[in-house]
Amino acid sequence: MKVAVAGCCHGALDKMYETLELLQRRHNVRPDLLLCCGDFQAVRNEADLRCMAVPAKYRHMQTFYRYYSGEKKAPVLTVFIGGNHEASNHLQELPYGGWVAPNIYYLGYAGVVRFRGVRIGGISGIFKSHDYRKGHFECPPYNQQTIRSAYHVRNIEVFKLKQLKRSIDIFMSHDWPRSIYHYGNKKQLLKMKSFFRQEVESNTLGSPAASELLQHLKPTYWFSAHLHVKFAAFMQHETKSKEELPKATKFLALDKCLPHRDFLQIIDVEHDPNASDSLEYDAEWIAVLKATNSLVNVTQSTWNMPEKNGLHAKWDYSVTEEAIKEVLEELNHDLKIPCNFTLTAACYDPNKPQKNMEPVHTINPQTTEFCAQFGLTDINDRIQQAKEEGSGRGECEEEEEEEMDSTGSAEEPSEYNTDNSGLSSFNPDEIMLDEEGGDEDLSTCSVDPSPDHPPEFSTSFSDIRIMPDSMAVSSDDAMDSNNEELEKFGGSKQVEEKSSTERSLKRIGGDENGNSGVKKIKRRNQAIYAAEDEDK
Description:
Elements: E1 2-6, H1 13-27, E2 33-36, H2 46-49, H3 64-69, E3 78-80, H4 88-92, E4 98-101, E5 104-106, E6 110-115, E7 118-123, H5 129-132, H6 146-149, H7 155-161, E8 170-173, H8 186-192, H9 197-201, H10 208-217, E9 221-224, E10 231-236, E11 248-253, E12 264-268, E13 279-281, H11 283-291, H12 321-330, H13 365-374, H14 379-389, E14 431-434, E15 457-458, H15 483-490, E16 520-522
Helix pairs in contact: 11-12
């Protein structure tokens, strides 16, 4: 089947789907599935805009609300993960995944689903070591810290995914697996993004948690976005025994949505012609959720996942074939995900803007139904209970509790290096590509529901981790043997927009008179966020 893969969408759904329709008209190619690798921006109203960790100038309503309201419907089944520019309050309603609009499915904090026999997994957010070992404690209204920590990857999601034994066909992450750039054309990458050089050379660009998953899952395809540049890599995995068949992963990072042409790619994926055309639950993943349910944490306390170190009575939460069979029997072997999308918030009305709308903590009926069906903890319900009980843990407060030591206790030190002494005081989640100066405070910025221009972001990382031996840095010369495979994969059918109605969107820089504008690469001032920067 044909799968379309998109980079950062930034809420420009109309343009994304128009591109697919153009592809069909011009080349008679119609994708069966669309995957989006984060920064989807499922913004329903002005309150959702307030939950996006971006300066006011980048807070645009865009076009998702039309699909949420039912005014429009996605022409192709769309599955996406979260990034670091999201309406976190909306996605938080669906921690285990669910429909954000008809025919548009969110994978949750982490998730695995099936479509036509193809197994698709993903993890939302980006990696930050100081939040990695906390629970999902955040809820709206967010403060200066939680509006960002809400989209930071947690160790429990990585732990769940590492319990999987069956092979994964496609996996998505927003940020890149650390070190993957050593398995592609690194010289060309640095030519396009020269400001990555220091982090590439020090092997600190990307997510160590994602690279850990790459090592464990060994998917056929891995797609990412986040850094707003197209990049292909081919990684041959090491075998642990002579009996193990060699596996390789084709990695592809996509650019952001329009005006850049490399934001979308079409690939052919082998599928089961006898499998259902509906999106389906994955039985092993459901069994893993049930097995790890006792590990759910909704507090700010930092803790390590169970491991074989003498401190835990149980450390292996992978599931047996019997447990998977039980899931199948519970569902009467009908794995189809119910189309139970429900409106949980008012939809934006361009004729009646409500700029003072405030976000509220909502428990989504989809999550309630899912948890009841499989005996799982509703994370948002647990957070709400903690709030009502006034326990202080997992409670939504305007002022956070005193920050805990991210290195953990002496008995359970963090598995990640958390020495940030070399970091600047600027927010590490952002490197902005901007044409103009000026800094705005995130806490006081106004909401601009203008649908005109998508935001432009790019990001680098700073947390250092010693990588597994199999992720050791390879020289550019060592990539010669993979060049043919990379060119074949990276050169798959691209979608280019050249219709008269969209030529104006191709502008990279410049004003209305056509004067060219020079992009400046700069780190945003600390004042955009808070003096107590999250990596301090």
